[in-house]
Write a structure and sequence with these properties.
227 residues; 3 strands; 2 domains; mainly alpha
Length: 227
């Protein structure tokens, strides 16, 4: 090929041909290099993308986990809220039936001067709160409630053989002490003192249990507008 070019076009043509071949070879190598670089870049890009996908997947997992926990808490919060609302409703009902100051005042002095009939009747009515329907979800507050109710029952039981209505037409109607027992006989007076002491003790326990009930539900964050 070179000889033919030399014969027809001279040495310059052969030189040009050599240059042309070199240029083509150079571009071929360059193209190969360019391709390899592009391929390497593609590999790096794919690697980065894969790494990015993994990182994104990690973020997605974290986000999913966070959403899951948040969802779980959200699922629990409404339940806890309903339980607290249920408990507070019952607490309010007890306080409404047995206003704290009025009830404790009358119960405290009852062993000396008797008790208003309506207050004592309300204490009897409050025994319904010991039923399963009125069980509180908060176990500590429920325990304090039950202890209070048991003390109320004991108090009412102590008044039954001792107090009665002397003047039904006088308002407020009172459950009075049988002071006449003291003048009938020594035995009758002893009976009076026995029942009086019993009422004094049960009333003291009832008041203490009421105070503990209030203290307990307050400690657990229950705020009642009935107190």
């Amino acid at each position: 090929m070179t000889e033919w070019l030399n014969a027809h076009f001279g040495a310059d043509a052969a030189t040009y041909l050599s240059l042309l071949v070199g240029v083509l070879a150079l571009f071929g190598i360059g193209g190969g290099v360019t391709y390899r670089i592009r391929q390497q870049n593609n590999i790096k890009q794919k690697a980065k993308k894969t790494e990015g996908d993994v990182n994104q997947a990690g973020r997605d997992i974290n986000q999913t986990t966070n959403v899951y926990h948040t969802s779980n808490e959200s699922a629990e919060d409404p339940v806890k809220k309903k339980q607290d609302e249920h408990d507070l409703k019952i607490i309010d009902q007890i306080l409404e039936l047995l206003p704290y100051e009025d009830t404790t005042r009358w119960v405290e002095q009852s062993y000396l001067s008797g008790i208003r009939q309506d207050v004592c009747l309300n204490i009897e009515k409050a025994e319904k709160f010991s039923g399963e329907k009125y069980r509180l979800f908060n176990t500590e507050v429920n325990g304090a409630k039950d202890a209070f109710l048991n003390a109320m029952t004991a108090y009412v039981d102590s008044t039954l053989p001792f107090m009665s209505v002397d003047y039904p037409n006088r308002k407020p109607v009172m459950l009075s002490l049988p002071h006449d027992w003291k003048s009938k006989s020594v035995e009758s007076e002893a009976n009076f003192r026995f029942h009086q002491q019993n009422v004094r003790e049960t009333s003291g326990v009832m008041i203490a249990r009421y105070e503990d009930f209030v203290r307990t539900f307050k400690a657990h964050g229950f705020i009642s507008d009935k107190l």
